[in-house]
Design goal:
The chain is of the alpha/beta class. The chain has one domain (4-266): TIM Barrel (Alpha-Beta Barrel). The chain contains 7 helices and 11 strands. The chain has a 7-stranded parallel β-sheet with strand order 1-2-3-4-7-8-9. A hairpin with a 2-residue loop joins strand 5 (110-111) and strand 6. The longest helix has 18 residues, at 127-144. The protein starts with a strand and ends with a strand. It catalyses: L-histidinol phosphate + H2O = L-histidinol + phosphate. Pathway: Amino-acid biosynthesis; L-histidine biosynthesis; L-histidine from 5-phospho-alpha-D-ribose 1-diphosphate: step 8/9.
Amino acid sequence: MIAKDYHIHSEFSGDSSQNLGELIEHCIQLGLKEIAITDHAEYGIQNLPESFILPFPKYVETIQEYQEKYSKQIQIRLGVEVGMYSPVVSYFEKNIRTYPFDFVIASNHSLEGQDIAFSDILQEKTKQEAQALYFESLLENIQTFSDFSVVGHLDFITRYGGAKFRGVNLKENWDCIQSILTHLVQNGKGIEINTSGFRYREERFYPLPEIVKEYLRLGGEIITVGSDAHIKGHVAMDFKRVEDFLRNIDYPYLASFEEQKARIEKI
């Protein structure tokens, strides 16, 4: 059983109203031993509500209070999901280095400075144009920003834009995807397996199994699993699928993080 969820959102995220205390209580009831609270930190993106700008001091203080309160029941990691955007990388570097984060997810939520979910940018492009731009942007961002633990939902661009944008064009984008994975491996960074794709009717996790296997083939070792839950009922959803997949490819291991240092553990 996978007993840790490393991608969970609460009321500190602009797209969640989930009470943090209730969320933690639910995780304990599920039998989880370890969780990372990873609320959104976005900055400098067009079309994005101000509620996505994380109040770092209050956020960190609140997580630390819950860490102490529940220390005998569950391991709570201080995490954050950074919406990478190279023009404002100094903003994220300053905040990540100021506070004692255990775990940082680096995600690509925007294209050409516009948030994918809150703009019509995809409607201006073909499926392949959007995907090529997304992967190229992701590569640029991880080459610019290094203060992270794993890349989040590496190929989730297919979630947006409707049916015609579904399905990753692996062949057309493989060179760029390989460049992304190679950079991660060479710099000791990981990837997450994000199960939210099953909730978005894609019937898959992010990224595709082929991408996970390529990361491992290139020498990568750091994999986390996250539900990307924004309500407590989604915590740890579809984790059995991930466990089965990892066992089937003979890599039954997941990473945990403390003070941004990875520890690889058998499932």
